[in-house]
Design goal:
6-stranded mixed beta sheet; single chain; alpha+beta; 445 residues; globular
Length: 445
């Protein structure tokens, strides 16, 4: 072989499907366990539907519930729970989205039984004491003050509102004042009505046999009962093209660019095609967007594009932070690269590199117990089978250049994407107005 010849590249390797077992409790809790030996630990991921048919509020109440659900039960204080977790070599935390409450944690394999019992105790009897709720309110309000002042958060919130309007997915970061009126009794009522096993899914990954993991979880959570409210969050109405939104942040030395539009979920026939198209466009460091905005023009340090999934919608988001004086040139280059995806062809090696990156990152992400648990939890919540671990890499490997062009035409066309910019209107309004119809809003207080 000549020193200038490249060695032949073998076929794409797909991850192995782990040994799994499934079971459904009479309460309605669906459980899936996977055996992943090597590390004597057990990972737990619990997803509880939290969307309702008639959602209200700005999400502050749900956020406080997630913050305080592990801060004491009828039998243990917050300190006692923390000490027990430490004794067990375990961790436990919760987060919330517009769709679901996610409870996640891990323990040593040898302490999995008492750990799962503690999880069951929290689910059945979180106390939400007045003292703990007051502490959480002050902390959440302080965090909201800081977070809402960050331009990246302003841009993300503004784009979500543009994409989803009054739908819960369009809610941004709750303002600090939202947390002040949430009483502990309201959290107890919310827990009683929504933290229920009906419709929830539990994923366990660990060294013990899958059937043994299910036995442990069934014994610990069998007494957790309850029916949730009828109906769930409805799918949002697809957005219609609208004027470019400029969120005025006086004195800003940079502009935060966001472009976004509808994408497809993991179970859609176009999913693999769009994922490959996104990687080629801006989904990794060797993408066209990075080559243009960072390497060639020097406009942005880390331009990127990504696809996010919610229970009833998915979205493609393109983002870049650029100096104020190159706001319009950078926006033009982003749109140029979007249009080039649909109008041009792929360079030699572009398609193969993107496909290998996607398959490789999935393999890496699912190598650990933690990564496998999180991935399985996500696909199970989407109604997909464990075989998706194999089916998806194979679908990626089968993507052709024509498939990428077709997906780009469907989902990456710049006219179909909403544009949001956070920046100094005094500097960028005039050149932007020469390019687009413009709407200006003040930055959130």
């Amino acid at each position: 072989m000549s020193v200038h010849e490249r060695p032949a590249v073998g076929p794409v390797r797909v991850p192995d499907v782990p040994s799994v077992a499934e079971r459904k409790l009479p309460s309605g809790l669906a459980m899936l366990a996977a055996t992943r030996p090597g590390v004597p630990r057990v990972e737990v991921r619990l997803r509880i539907p939290f969307g309702t048919a008639r959602p209200t509020g700005d999400g502050a109440r749900e956020r406080l519930l997630a913050d305080t659900i592990t801060s004491g039960t009828s039998d243990r204080s917050a300190v006692a729970i923390a000490r027990e977790l430490q004794r067990l070599g375990a961790s436990l935390r919760a987060s919330v989205t517009s769709d679901e409450l996610i409870v996640m944690g891990s323990s040593l394999a040898e302490t999995a039984v008492p750990f799962l019992s503690l999880v069951g105790e929290v689910l059945r009897g979180a106390a939400y004491s007045d003292e703990e709720v007051l502490i959480a309110q002050a902390r959440a309000a302080q965090e909201a003050t800081i977070v809402r002042s960050q331009p990246t958060v302003m841009a993300g919130d503004a784009l979500a509102a543009r994409l989803y309007g009054k739908h819960p997915y369009g809610r941004g970061t709750p303002p600090p004042s939202s947390y002040e009126g949430v009483a502990a009794v309201a959290l107890r009522r919310l827990h009683a009505s929504r933290v229920v096993p009906s419709g929830a899914s539990l994923v366990l990954v660990g060294a013990p046999a899958a059937s043994e993991l299910l036995d442990m979880a069934g014994a610990a959570l069998g007494e957790w009962t309850g029916e949730g409210p009828s109906g769930s969050t409805k799918a949002p109405t697809p957005p219609t093209p609208s004027a470019t939104l400029l969120v005025n942040r006086p004195g800003s030395v940079q502009s935060n660019l966001r472009l976004g539009g509808p994408a497809v979920g993991r179970g859609h026939a176009d999913h693999a095609r769009l994922q490959v198209a996104n990687i080629v466009f801006g989904g990794y460091f060797s993408s066209r967007l990075v080559a243009n905005l960072r390497e060639d023009k020097g406009f942005s340090y880390s331009p990127r594009s990504s696809i996010g999934h919610r229970r009833h919608a998915s979205e493609l988001v393109v983002s870049a932070e650029v100096a104020t004086d190159v706001t319009v040139p950078a926006l033009l280059e982003v749109r140029y690269e979007l249009a080039r995806m649909a109008a041009g062809t792929l360079a030699p090696g572009e398609l193969d590199a993107a496909k290998r990156y996607l398959v490789g990152t999935l393999a890496l992400a699912t190598q650990t117990q933690s990564g496998l648990a999180s991935y399985l939890s996500a696909i199970v919540a989407d109604g997909l089978a464990v075989d998706h671990l194999v089916d998806y890499p194979r679908a990626v490997a089968a993507v052709t250049t024509d498939d990428v062009m077709d997906a780009s035409l469907r989902y990456l066309g710049p006219r179909g994407l909403q544009t949001v910019i956070v920046g100094d209107a005094a500097t960028v309004e005039r050149p932007l107005a020469a390019l687009d119809e413009l709407e200006i809003q003040p930055a959130p207080a």
